[in-house]
Amino acid sequence: MLRDIAEYPNSYGPLGPADERIETGRYTLCLGRGLTWNTVQRQRFALEETDDVLAEVRAHLRARGRTRTEWEIGSTAPDGLVDALLARGLARDREPYAVALVLTREPEPPPADITARRVETFEEYAEASAVQWHAFEMPHDEVEDVRANLPQMWEERVNLMHAAWLDRRIVSAGTAAPTEHGLLLYGGATLPEARGRGGYRGVLRARWVDAAARGTPALITQGGSMSRPILERLGFERVGEIHMLVDDFS
Questions:
Q1: Which tens digit of pLDDT belongs to each residue from 95-120?
Q2: How many CB atoms lie within 10 A of CB 239?
Q3: How far, in Å, are 53, 78, 109 from residue 237 at the CA level?
Q4: What is the DSSP string of 81-104?
Q5: Which of 21, 97, 125, 236 could pair covalently with 101 via S-S, beta carbons 3.0-4.6 A apart?
Q6: How many whole angstroms separate alpha carbon 133 and alpha carbon 131?
Q7: 128-187: per-residue pLDDT in tens?
């Protein structure tokens, strides 16, 4: 179960008011706020059904005014699905491969000069979000789009935000989504000038404390080429893999 959640996190996380999840016997289609956040997960069909499934997914998206989606293909997907989709015009995503990672033991605490906890006010939430935007070099137009939605996102509070402070300033932040099996981790980021100071370790510890308090002591995430080595050094274990493709059919 932890592997399936790690490979297909959006199929298990809580839904916000603007989110939709279409469950079928052959796949799960997850749709988020806006028009561009879409992903196909948990593929459970025979390879010869690929054309039918691709047409069905595109029809769902077109009906909602959407013409682009990501396919996240995990280790339980049909053999050969990645090559079959590439042959049909899909392309590898900018970050085309990740591993599914799980932490089931308490992580080490951060250095003494790091304070970490869940954010408690909108001002903290906005500051933590800005850390993520800066660390991930998010394009300006995307930042402005998210910034405009921040008040509503804070009011909804579907996900959790944890942050780490150094010298009274947020230097590291990460989003988490509660599930009945543990916390799903997203968007862990540290300001470039504060890296190596233990900020991310503090955010990780704060997430663990929350997960344990909920009776689900496990942290579940995906690691790309940059984050995987860091997460594995912090104790995460590899349980699966994911290939990411993009279908732009506009």
A1: 999 999 999 999 999 999 999 999 99
A2: 17
A3: 33, 24, 19
A4: HHHHHHHTT-EEEEEEEEEEEEE-
A5: 236
A6: 6
A7: 999 999 999 988 988 998 899 899 999 988 899 999 999 999 999 999 999 999 999 999
Other Cβ atoms within 10 Å of 133 Cβ, number: 18
- DSSP 8-class letter at 162: E
Q: pLDDT for 198-222, tens place per residue? A: 999 999 999 999 999 999 999 999 9
Cα separation, 114 vs 204, in Å, equals 12
CATH placement of domain 2-98+242-248: 3.40.630
pLDDT at residue 189 greater than cutoff 90: yes
Tokens of 175: 């989003």
For 158, other C-beta atoms within 10 Å of its C-beta total 15
Report the C-alpha dihedral over residues 230, 232, 176, 221, rounded to 10 degrees: 120
- Output phi, psi for 224, to 5 deg: -90, -165
Give the C-alpha separation, 23 to 41, whole Å.
Answer: 10
- 136 backbone dihedrals φ, ψ, rounded to 5°: -90, 5
CATH 3.40.630.30 residue ranges for the chain? 114-217
Handedness of CA 11, 13, 14, 19 (dihedral sign): negative
Report the topology of domain 114-217: Aminopeptidase (3.40.630)
The pLDDT value recorded for residue 77 is 96
Amino acid identity of 184?
L
